[in-house]
C-alpha cells in the first residue's frame, strides 16, 4: 500500500528531530519550523539569507548531535540528549540562544570550529538553496540495511516525509514528476547527496556503519532521498495515500 509512514522535522538544523502525526504544508515553503534556526560556528561566513550547511554545527563534524531529539512548544524548542539532559529555549531570545550555545558546546570536539551564535532564516536552512521538503523511501532504507547487514534508523537521513509502498530505489526515477500526498502536491526536483552524518547511529551519537561506502559500492553514488518543492499546500497525515503524476 502506498502510504505516508513517517513525518519528521528539525526545528534547529542538526539539533534534534521531532516526529509529527500530521502537518500543513504551504506552497513554496519547508515544513513549518523545519530548520528555521541553525547554530553558526566561529568560522562561518554567513549570507544575509540562506547560507550553506558548512557554516553551521552538523552531525558530520559533531556526531553527538545526531542523538538529540526536539519538540516545538509554542515559540520554544525543547531539546533532549542522552548525556546533556533537557533544555527548553526560544532561539530568537538572545539569552536563550546563549544558553543553547553553552549547553551544546560540550558535544563539539575541541579540534572543530566552536558554536558562537544562533541564526534564523524564515525560508528554512535546508541543504538546498531554496525551500524544500525531503522525500525518502522506507523500501530503499530496508534494501540498504540488508546490504550493510544492520538495521538502519531512518533518523540517520534526517528526512521529512518517508513513504511506504515504492520499490527500492524507484524514487530516483521521479525527478520532474509530481507527488500527491493527502491534500498537498509536491514537485520532485533533485536527488540528495549524503555526508558522513548518515554513518552515525542516532540512538547513541556514535559512528556505526559506513553508509557512504555501501552506497558507493552498490550504486556508484552517495545519494539517498529526494528534494521536493511544495506546489500546492494542504494537510498531510500519517497513513495518507500517495500517488505520482
Explained architecture:
This protein is mainly β. Helix content is about 15%, strand content about 35%. It has three helices and 17 strands. The mean pLDDT is about 95.
Give a concise summary.
This protein has 245 residues and is mainly β.
Strand content: 25-35%
* Terminal residue distance: 17 Å
CATH domain class name of the largest domain: Mainly Beta
CATH architecture descriptor text of the largest domain:
Beta Barrel
The name CATH uses for the topology of the largest domain is M1 Pyruvate Kinase, Domain 3
Q: Provide the helix percentage.
A: 10-25%
* Tally of alpha and pi helices: 3
Ranges where pLDDT stays below 50 over 5 or more residues in a row are none
Largest sheet: 8 strands, mixed
Radius of gyration: 17 Å
- Shape, per Cα inertia axes: globular
Number of strands: 17
The computed structural class is mainly beta
Strand order in the largest sheet? 2-1-10-9-15-12-11-17
The chain-level mean pLDDT equals 97
Secondary-structure element order, N to C: EEEEEEEHEEHEEEEEHEEE
CATH H level, superfamily name of the largest domain: PK beta-barrel domain-like
Keywords:
245 residues, mainly beta, M1 Pyruvate Kinase, Domain 3, 2 domains, 8-stranded mixed sheet, 3-stranded antiparallel sheet, 17 strands
Task: Reconstruct the topology from this structure.
Elements: E1 3-9, E2 18-20, E3 22-25, E4 37-41, E5 69-73, E6 76-81, E7 85-89, H1 94-104, E8 115-120, E9 133-137, H2 138-148, E10 161-164, E11 178-181, E12 184-193, E13 200-201, E14 206-207, H3 211-219, E15 223-232, E16 234-237, E17 242-244
Parallel strand pairs: 9-10
Antiparallel strand pairs: 1-2, 1-10, 3-16, 4-8, 5-6, 6-7, 9-15, 11-12, 11-17, 12-15, 13-14
Amino acid at each position: 500500500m502506498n502510504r505516508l509512514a513517517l513525518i519528521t522535522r528539525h526545528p534547529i538544523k542538526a539539533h534534534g528531530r521531532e516526529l509529527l502525526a500530521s502537518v500543513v504544508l504551504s506552497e513554496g515553503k519547508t515544513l513549518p519550523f523545519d530548520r528555521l534556526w541553525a547554530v553558526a560556528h566561529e568560522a562561518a561566513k554567513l549570507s544575509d539569507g540562506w547560507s550553506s550547511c558548512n557554516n553551521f554545527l552538523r552531525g558530520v563534524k559533531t556526531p553527538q548531535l545526531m542523538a538529540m531529539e526536539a519538540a516545538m512548544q509554542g515559540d520554544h524548542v525543547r531539546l533532549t540528549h542522552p548525556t546533556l539532559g533537557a533544555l527548553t529555549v526560544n532561539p530568537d531570545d538572545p539569552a536563550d540562544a546563549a544558553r543553547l550555545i553553552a549547553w551544546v558546546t560540550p558535544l563539539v570536539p575541541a579540534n572543530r570550529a566552536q558554536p558562537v551564535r544562533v541564526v534564523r532564516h524564515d525560508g528554512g536552512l535546508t541543504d538546498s538553496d531554496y525551500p524544500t521538503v525531503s522525500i525518502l523511501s522506507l523500501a530503499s532504507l530496508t534494501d540498504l540495511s540488508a546490504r550493510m547487514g544492520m538495521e538502519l534508523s531512518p533518523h540517520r537521513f534526517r528526512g521529512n516525509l518517508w513513504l511506504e509502498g515504492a520499490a527500492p530505489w524507484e524514487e530516483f526515477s521521479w525527478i520532474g514528476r509530481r507527488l500527491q500526498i493527502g491534500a498537498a502536491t509536491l514537485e520532485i526536483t533533485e536527488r540528495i547527496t549524503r555526508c558522513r552524518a548518515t554513518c552515525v547511529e542516532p540512538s547513541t551519537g556514535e559512528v556505526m556503519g559506513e553508509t557512504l561506502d555501501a552506497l558507493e559500492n552498490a550504486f556508484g553514488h552517495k545519494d539517498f532521498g529526494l528534494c521536493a518543492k511544495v506546489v500546492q499546500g494542504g494537510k498531510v497525515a500519517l497513513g495518507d495515500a500517495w500517488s505520482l503524476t
